[in-house]
Design a protein that fits this description.
It contains eight helices and eleven strands. By secondary structure, it is an alpha+beta fold. It has one domain: Cyclic Phosphodiesterase, Chain: A, CATH 3.90.1140. The strands form four sheets. It has a four-stranded antiparallel sheet, with helices on one face. It has a three-stranded antiparallel sheet with strand order 6-7-8, covered by helices on one side. The mean pLDDT is 94.
């Protein structure tokens, strides 16, 4: 009898589902986490649908997002209602803040939107999110640890992987909204030229992180779906 597969949860920053950045992300990736379904893709000059599908295969599964607490299965004794309740309390204590304008960047071969300058408040939010919910996280399975290690981790990143289930936290955290897979140089440049005018409206001014989102993935390889988006309503220090 096949073993039951536990759903995974993730705590992300996701754009306002009614806003233009969410509309761009859904159209570019072909998946809208807020609706929980595939949507029509943006049609780009010089980019055929097959190439776009291949270049966005993994990002499409997650939807447009910035990782705060990476995907995890729940620990024995934890449940979804408890996680959601904890997250609501956490969001109510955290203040909203302003982030520098986004820019389109090449991160080791994949394209992403990233803040154009450092934002300590964003790092603080990610650090707090990683720590605050780790008791609800089941240990990462050995297969996942092995897969992560194939990326060539530093000793510190390997320590993060063992302790927190993910290598790119704390000092190794870098907020980004992934747009493509890793691409060869020629393909990457072609996609960059196509994307630049589409993302330009999101790269001309600072923006607000005023909410965090809980997402759920029922089974491996299925897309993540938005469970709840919670406003950050804490008072500024």
């Amino acid at each position: 009898m096949p073993q039951a597969v536990s759903p995974r949860y993730a705590i992300y920053w996701t754009p306002d589902p009614a806003g233009p950045l969410a509309a761009f992300g859904a159209g570019w990736l072909g998946h809208d986490p807020a609706l929980g379904r595939s949507v029509s893709r943006l049609v780009l000059p010089g980019i055929n649908t097959r190439s776009q599908d291949a270049a966005t295969l993994s990002p499409r599964r997650y939807g447009l997002h910035g990782t705060l607490k990476p995907p995890f299965a729940l620990a024995p004794g934890a449940d979804a209602a408890g996680l959601e309740s904890r997250l609501a309390t956490f969001a109510a204590a955290m203040p909203a803040f302003i982030v520098p304008a986004l820019m389109l960047a090449d991160i080791k071969g994949f394209l992403a939107l990233v803040p154009s300058s450092p934002c300590p408040a964003l790092h603080d939010l990610a650090d707090a999110t990683v720590r605050s919910f780790d008791d609800l996280r089941a240990p990462a399975p050995e297969a996942e640890l092995s897969r992560r290690r194939k990326a060539g981790l530093t000793p510190r990143q390997d320590g993060h992987l063992v302790r927190w289930g993910y290598p790119y936290v704390f000092e190794d955290f870098a907020f980004h909204l992934t747009l493509t897979e890793r691409l060869d140089e020629v393909t990457r440049q072609r996609f960059r030229v196509a994307l630049e005018p589409l993302v330009a409206p999101f790269c001309d001014a600072p923006w607000s992180v005023d909410a965090i989102s809980l997402l759920r993935q029922e089974r491996p390889a299925e897309p993540f779906v938005l469970v709840r988006r919670l406003l950050l309503s804490g008072a500024r220090a």
